[in-house]
Amino acid sequence: MTVDSASPAPIDAVPLRHPWRWLAAVVIIVLVALFVYGAATNAAYGWSTYREYIFDQRISEAAWNTVQLTFWAMVLGVLLGVLLAIMRLSPNPVFTSVAWVYLWIFRGTPVYVQLVFWGLFPTLYQHLQLGVPFGPSFFHVDLQGLSISFILAAVGLGLNEAAYMAEIIRAGINSVPEGQFEASTALGMSWWMTMRRTVLPQAMRVIIPPTGNEVISMLKTTSLVTAVPYSLELYGRARDISGVIFKPIPLLLVAATWYLAITSVLMVGQYYLERYFSRGISRKLTSKQLEALAAAQTGAAHP
Amino acid sequence: MTAPMVLAEAVCKNFGALKVLKGVTLHVQKGEVLVIVGPSGSGKSTFLRCINHLDNISAGRLYVDGRLVGYREARGKLHELPPRDAAKQRRDVGMVFQHFNLFPHRTALENIVEAPIHVKKVKHGRAEARARELLDQVGLSDKAAAYPAQLSGGQQQRVAIARALAMDPKLILFDEPTSALDPELVGEVLAVMKKLAGEGMTMLVVTHEMGFAREVADQLVFMDGGVIVESGHPRDVLSDPQHERTKAFLSKLL
């Protein structure tokens, strides 16, 4: 058989052995198997109760409440965070100091304490009204007569979150080079258009990863809203049920399973968001560009 | 005689106690190419930035196409222009930067149509057709879909020139457009600029490219220490500099 000199035979070498990797894997598998066996046979885990409640309607409703609480708290946190970040970067000294004081208070006190405070809000202010001072009133709500613990919980979490989001967004805006402001200004863009079209889209690349962490962290922080008190979210509901049937461990596991499932879904969403906002960063061609080039190579008509 | 495109009368610029421009007087007619040379720190770039009102001047008067830059004069007093009017003035003045400053999250084509569509409210289709025309003019018609990071420095700068041209400016300011480029890429950018000058575009160019100055400029200005030391036709200034500082600077360049 002749060997083509242009394409030499591929290398057929004996691969390097890794005995320690195999040993480590075996040890870990044995330990995990022992733990799983122990957990499965230990009656105190209450797996039958776990199976009974994992898809219980009260639990899935509570999980939905947790998702809604997370959503509204994050919406409030992001919107207020953008406002605070822009205030802190503005040349107006009044805005800068207001934003600074806000951050000082809301980052400087525990979120649990803040939530208790928001729970007591209707005690401090019995009713809200909108109108002219000492004049007529257009709008009036009696706070004590309402069951607004969900709203208070979302507002409490959101106001606390805004302080953290403001710092994340400020860091993102600061990461955009000054030349980008200058180029936009030189093209006749207004300050606001420069922010919206040039700066924020580029800042997003820096803002998204920590914001994803904040969402996941918020999902778990919602378990603190019993302080308000609001107890129709996942952890509160699981605890209420376990209080009635005296089986705390299986219900804790039920709640943990749901938190883990929701977090996993959020992580997938974060991956796609990050990919979208990192476009133009790498020299590597995108799959769309590669397709276009391949099409051009095969002589297809240029679009 | 029509008003000059750029008219500077004793323009001064201070940054705090630091005086960067100490009375620059010059004028550029429509269609003229002015090249500004000088050592770094001489105030060349600051002067360009003042023309576009990226910085405001501290004293003197600066006019573009007969209109005061950044201010409005009423009853013998100057009033700062509101941001909206200042932005409107900048639309007519293109600017090309040393570090290109293309928008990294937009393709070459998107970079070019950005300002026409969002600032001038030109229709999408028309802006895009014009952008493709401009890309063709700067020799990059095949790079419309490329992101800036995928282009060489010279290609990025040519896209930046096309982006400035898309606003149909009355004049273009070039702030050391070839200083950040590898030597073999300088030529392609200068070629585009020469073509523009040939088409009658009014240009103010800060550069160290003496060949370009000799070939293209109508007027050459040598700045040092915030003042114009010497000015005239490039042929005269380059071959027969009168001032000691000009001689010293040019001898180092050539």
| Oligomer kind | heterodimer
The major beta sheet of chain A can be summarized as: 2 strands, antiparallel
- With helices defined by DSSP (H or I, 4 residues minimum), what is the helix count of chain B? 9
Q: pLDDT below 50 for ≥5 consecutive residues: which ranges of chain A?
A: none
Cα distance, first to last residue of chain B?
38 Å
**What ranges of chain B have pLDDT less than 50 throughout 5 or more consecutive residues?**
none
| Number of E-type strands of chain A | 2
Binned strand content of chain A: under 5%
Mean pLDDT of chain A: 88
Radius of gyration of chain B: 18 Å
Q: Tell me the major beta sheet of chain B.
A: 6 strands, mixed
**Mean of all residue-level pLDDT scores of chain B:** 92
Order of helices and strands of chain A: HHHHHHEEHHHHHH
| Estimated share of beta-strand residues of chain B | 25-35%
The radius of gyration over CA of chain A amounts to 28 Å
Q: How much helix is in the residues of chain A?
A: 55-70%
Can you describe what's shown?
The complex is a heterodimer of chains A (about 300) and B (about 250). Chain A is mainly alpha-helical and about 300 residues long. Helices cover about 70% and strands about 5% of the residues of chain A. In chain A, strands 1-2 form a two-stranded antiparallel ribbon. The radius of gyration of chain A is 28 Å and the shape is flat. Classes of the chains: A mainly alpha (about 300), B alpha/beta (about 250). The interface between A and B is medium-sized, with 26 and 34 residues.
